[in-house]
Amino acid sequence: MTSVRESARPRTPADDENAEAGARLRSVRPAAVGLSSSRLTPSGRAVLGTGVVACAVGWGLGYAEALALGVAALAAVAFALVWTHPTPSVRARREIVPIRVARDETAQGVVVLHNTGTRTLRGMRAEDRVAGVPVFPVDLPPVPPGAEVRARYRLPTDQRGSVEVGPMLLVRGDPLGLARRVRECGSAETLLVRPRTVPLPVLPAGRTHHLEGPTSDTAEDGTLTFHSLREYVLGDDMRRVHWRSSARTGRLMVRRMIDVSLPTTTVVLDTGQDAYRDGAFETAVDVAASVAEAAARSHFPVRLLTGGGLLPLGDGHDPGADHVLDRLSLVSAESRHTLSDALDVLERLREGDTLVVVTGGELPLPGERLGRMRGRFDRMLVVRVGVSAAATTALGVPQLTVDLLDDLVPAWRREAMR
Question: How far is CA 123 from its chain centroid?
Answer without folding.
Answer: 33
